[in-house]
Every structure is written in structure tokens, then in C-alpha cells.
Amino acid sequence: MSGPIGQLTRGTTGYNRLRRSDRWLVHSPRVRAALLSAADPLVVDLGYGALPVTTLELAARLRTVRHDVRVVGLEIHPERVETARTVAGPDSDVEFGLGGFEMAGRTPILVRAFNVLRQYDAAAVPEAWAVMTRALAPGGLIVDGTCDELGRRCCWVLLDALGPVSLVLACDPFAIDKPSDLAERLPKVLIHHNVEGQPVHALLTAADRAWASAAAHGVFGPRVRWRAMLELLRDQGIPVEPPRRRMRDGVLCVPWDTVAPT
Length: 262
Description:
This protein is of the alpha/beta class. Helices cover about 35% and strands about 20% of the residues. The chain has helices spanning about 20-25, 30-35, 55-60, 80-90, 125-135, 190, 200-215, 220-235, 255-260; strands at about 40-45, 70-75, 95-100, 110-115, 140-145, 155-160, 165-170, 250-255. It starts with 18 loop residues before the first helix and ends with a helix. The model has no long low-confidence stretch (mean pLDDT about 95).
């Protein structure tokens, strides 16, 4: 290879910033199945930023699914790689290396690329996805997502070798006024399509209406109100994935066909 494929991003990060996506990964049946069935449970955290804290957190959380998961953090800037190795320490069981969308020749079963493509032009997304999916191990998955600085508002796309599978919106329900507040964190592939006549705009509009209709549930807290909103959306025929039992996060997950740009 001639070198890492990609461009240097801002590199902002923070402790526990990606906790919501990590929790979703740990509980997602499809992600769990991929990790548990992989001959080599290699996971790549692409573009972890100026500090490796979220990569180390990812490794700790995924090892609750499979104890022998191998996590590699990749960055295209050598200084960030050296910083990560220093912070992690010589005894760390997480590896850090130089690499980009090409995965530095590795074949991971899972790739997390958070707050990376957010900083690219929308026209660059299909090629970046194509390069990453070509590097996947059989049955591999990619998470392309965006979140705010504190990780209270997050959105991500799950992809497999054939393309996008689903869209997930996740938040702290205490940190929003309405579901469409998450629009500013839509992945790059969707953020410019949040306009009248596009499916993702229709989903957010329907969610806002259901949120308003569920206002009476707010007396029990915004998490209960969020679940009531999901039930109303399902009653309207929107294929919302049932939430897992715990209600810590507000999660809205739909198949990609529900929001794919027209």
C-alpha cells in the first residue's frame, strides 16, 4: 500500500463520549452474532482522534461479549499513533497503528468510524464506504456515526458488505426538546437530505408528532415518554426496532430502506 487512505480530521474526543453507540453494539443481536462467530474477532476503531480513550473503552465493553476480542485503533497521523501508545502504556492489550479507510491491510469483523466522515464532503462517502467494506472479513460490519461533544446526541448507520443496513438515533432523553434535535448529528450520508420530501425528514417529523402526542407520559420521565413515542410510531406502520429492556438511552432504530434518500 502507498499509505493510509483518508484525510486528517480534527481529532476531538473525550472520555465516555461514545458510550451510547458502545452500549448498542454490545446488545445488538447482529453485532453480537458477528463477533461470536468470527474466526478472528478483530475490531478496528478508525479515526479515534487525539487521545485513545474511546478505543480503550470500546475494547473493555466488547470483551463483555467475547473475551478474546482484539481491538486496533487506526489513525492517519503518526503523532496520534505515538500518543495513543504512550497513553495506553506498554502493557495494553489494545494495539494502535497507522492506517485509514483501507484498514492498513487488516480484515476486521467490525469497524467503528465515529466522527470521521462527518468532516468529509458528502460526495466522498460512497467511496469511503466501498474501501472499508472491501477490507471486511466475511460477515463483517461497519458503524459510521456522528455524535455531539458529550455524546448525548448520536446517530449512526450500520453497514455490511452489501451496503447500509439500518439507521440508529440515540440520545439522552433528558437532553432534547424533541427527537428532531438529533438532525444536526445525522451521518454525512443523510444530513443534507433532511428536507421536505425525503424519507429521513419524514421520519423525524413523525417522531416529533409522536413525541408531542406522548407528552402525558412525561410525568413519568422522558425515558418513558420516549418508549411511548416508539409505540406510536410502530402503530403508524413505521418499522421501529423494539427497544431493549433497559431504558437508559433513547434509541430509535429503523431499517435503511425507511430513510434511504430518494
